Predict the structure of Transporter.
Amino acid sequence: MSPSRLLSALACGLLFGAGLVISDMANPQRVLAFLDIAGAWDPSLAFVMAGALVPSSLAYWIKRRQARPLLDKEFHIPTSRTIDGRLVGGAVLFGLGWGLVGLCPGPAFAVLITGGWQAALFVGAMLTGMLVFRLVTQRSF
Protein backbone atom coordinates (compact mmCIF):
# COMPACT_ATOMS: atom_id res chain seq x y z
CA MET A 1 0.00 0.00 0.00
CA SER A 2 1.38 3.39 -0.97
CA PRO A 3 2.10 5.93 1.79
CA SER A 4 -0.61 8.28 0.49
CA ARG A 5 -3.24 5.51 0.59
CA LEU A 6 -2.08 4.47 4.06
CA LEU A 7 -2.29 8.04 5.36
CA SER A 8 -5.68 8.49 3.72
CA ALA A 9 -7.00 5.28 5.33
CA LEU A 10 -5.57 6.34 8.71
CA ALA A 11 -7.16 9.80 8.43
CA CYS A 12 -10.54 8.30 7.47
CA GLY A 13 -10.38 5.82 10.35
CA LEU A 14 -9.45 8.52 12.84
CA LEU A 15 -12.24 10.79 11.57
CA PHE A 16 -14.76 7.94 11.80
CA GLY A 17 -13.59 7.02 15.31
CA ALA A 18 -13.71 10.64 16.44
CA GLY A 19 -17.24 10.93 15.07
CA LEU A 20 -18.28 7.83 17.01
CA VAL A 21 -16.78 9.18 20.22
CA ILE A 22 -18.14 12.74 19.79
CA SER A 23 -21.65 11.46 18.99
CA ASP A 24 -21.39 9.04 21.97
CA MET A 25 -22.13 6.11 19.64
CA ALA A 26 -19.07 4.33 21.04
CA ASN A 27 -21.02 4.10 24.30
CA PRO A 28 -22.71 0.67 24.38
CA GLN A 29 -25.39 1.98 26.76
CA ARG A 30 -26.46 4.60 24.20
CA VAL A 31 -26.88 1.90 21.53
CA LEU A 32 -28.73 -0.45 23.88
CA ALA A 33 -31.06 2.42 24.86
CA PHE A 34 -31.86 2.92 21.15
CA LEU A 35 -32.74 -0.76 20.83
CA ASP A 36 -34.96 -0.64 23.96
CA ILE A 37 -38.13 0.55 22.23
CA ALA A 38 -40.38 -0.71 25.06
CA GLY A 39 -38.38 1.05 27.80
CA ALA A 40 -36.32 4.23 28.00
CA TRP A 41 -35.90 4.58 24.24
CA ASP A 42 -33.16 6.96 23.07
CA PRO A 43 -33.63 8.06 19.42
CA SER A 44 -30.19 9.71 19.09
CA LEU A 45 -28.73 6.78 17.12
CA ALA A 46 -31.44 7.28 14.48
CA PHE A 47 -30.31 10.90 14.06
CA VAL A 48 -26.68 9.83 13.70
CA MET A 49 -27.67 7.23 11.08
CA ALA A 50 -29.74 9.81 9.21
CA GLY A 51 -26.84 12.26 9.39
CA ALA A 52 -24.54 9.62 7.86
CA LEU A 53 -26.65 9.75 4.70
CA VAL A 54 -25.27 13.22 3.90
CA PRO A 55 -21.58 12.30 3.46
CA SER A 56 -22.52 8.95 1.89
CA SER A 57 -24.74 10.65 -0.67
CA LEU A 58 -22.03 13.21 -1.35
CA ALA A 59 -19.46 10.44 -1.90
CA TYR A 60 -21.71 8.67 -4.42
CA TRP A 61 -22.37 11.99 -6.17
CA ILE A 62 -18.61 12.58 -6.48
CA LYS A 63 -18.04 8.98 -7.62
CA ARG A 64 -20.46 9.39 -10.52
CA ARG A 65 -18.42 12.34 -11.77
CA GLN A 66 -14.98 10.70 -11.54
CA ALA A 67 -13.51 7.94 -13.69
CA ARG A 68 -11.45 6.64 -10.76
CA PRO A 69 -10.66 7.55 -7.15
CA LEU A 70 -7.76 9.83 -6.34
CA LEU A 71 -5.64 7.18 -4.63
CA ASP A 72 -6.58 3.95 -6.45
CA LYS A 73 -7.02 2.55 -9.95
CA GLU A 74 -10.74 1.84 -9.58
CA PHE A 75 -13.70 2.19 -7.23
CA HIS A 76 -14.45 -0.85 -5.06
CA ILE A 77 -18.23 -0.83 -4.75
CA PRO A 78 -20.18 -4.08 -4.42
CA THR A 79 -22.22 -4.88 -7.50
CA SER A 80 -24.13 -7.94 -6.26
CA ARG A 81 -27.71 -7.41 -5.17
CA THR A 82 -28.24 -11.08 -4.28
CA ILE A 83 -29.58 -11.89 -0.83
CA ASP A 84 -28.14 -15.28 0.06
CA GLY A 85 -27.58 -17.35 3.19
CA ARG A 86 -24.15 -15.87 3.88
CA LEU A 87 -25.53 -12.33 3.78
CA VAL A 88 -28.52 -13.17 5.99
CA GLY A 89 -26.37 -15.19 8.40
CA GLY A 90 -23.84 -12.39 8.69
CA ALA A 91 -26.58 -9.84 9.27
CA VAL A 92 -28.13 -12.01 11.97
CA LEU A 93 -24.79 -12.48 13.74
CA PHE A 94 -24.04 -8.76 13.48
CA GLY A 95 -27.48 -7.86 14.86
CA LEU A 96 -27.25 -10.35 17.70
CA GLY A 97 -23.82 -9.10 18.74
CA TRP A 98 -24.88 -5.49 18.47
CA GLY A 99 -28.10 -6.06 20.39
CA LEU A 100 -26.53 -8.13 23.16
CA VAL A 101 -23.41 -6.06 23.76
CA GLY A 102 -24.17 -2.64 22.26
CA LEU A 103 -21.00 -2.69 20.17
CA CYS A 104 -20.28 -3.24 16.52
CA PRO A 105 -16.81 -3.28 14.92
CA GLY A 106 -16.31 0.49 14.49
CA PRO A 107 -17.24 1.55 18.02
CA ALA A 108 -15.45 -1.48 19.49
CA PHE A 109 -12.15 -0.33 17.99
CA ALA A 110 -12.84 3.25 19.10
CA VAL A 111 -13.51 2.06 22.67
CA LEU A 112 -10.27 0.06 22.71
CA ILE A 113 -8.33 3.26 23.38
CA THR A 114 -10.07 3.57 26.75
CA GLY A 115 -8.55 0.28 27.84
CA GLY A 116 -11.89 -1.29 28.73
CA TRP A 117 -11.70 -5.07 28.98
CA GLN A 118 -15.18 -5.43 27.50
CA ALA A 119 -14.12 -3.85 24.22
CA ALA A 120 -10.93 -5.93 24.17
CA LEU A 121 -12.98 -9.08 24.74
CA PHE A 122 -15.44 -8.10 22.00
CA VAL A 123 -12.68 -7.30 19.48
CA GLY A 124 -10.87 -10.54 20.35
CA ALA A 125 -14.05 -12.57 19.87
CA MET A 126 -14.83 -10.73 16.62
CA LEU A 127 -11.34 -11.36 15.20
CA THR A 128 -11.53 -15.01 16.27
CA GLY A 129 -14.89 -15.34 14.53
CA MET A 130 -13.47 -13.79 11.38
CA LEU A 131 -10.55 -16.22 11.44
CA VAL A 132 -12.82 -19.23 12.00
CA PHE A 133 -15.07 -18.08 9.14
CA ARG A 134 -12.09 -17.74 6.82
CA LEU A 135 -10.78 -21.19 7.77
CA VAL A 136 -14.18 -22.84 7.36
CA THR A 137 -14.99 -21.20 4.03
CA GLN A 138 -11.55 -21.97 2.57
CA ARG A 139 -11.97 -25.66 3.36
CA SER A 140 -15.50 -25.91 1.97
CA PHE A 141 -14.67 -24.39 -1.43
Observations:
- The CA atoms of residues 87 and 93 lie 10 Å apart.
- The radius of gyration is 18 Å.
- The helical segments are 3-22, 28-35, 44-64, 85-101, 105-112, 117-140.
- DSSP finds six helices and no strands in the chain.
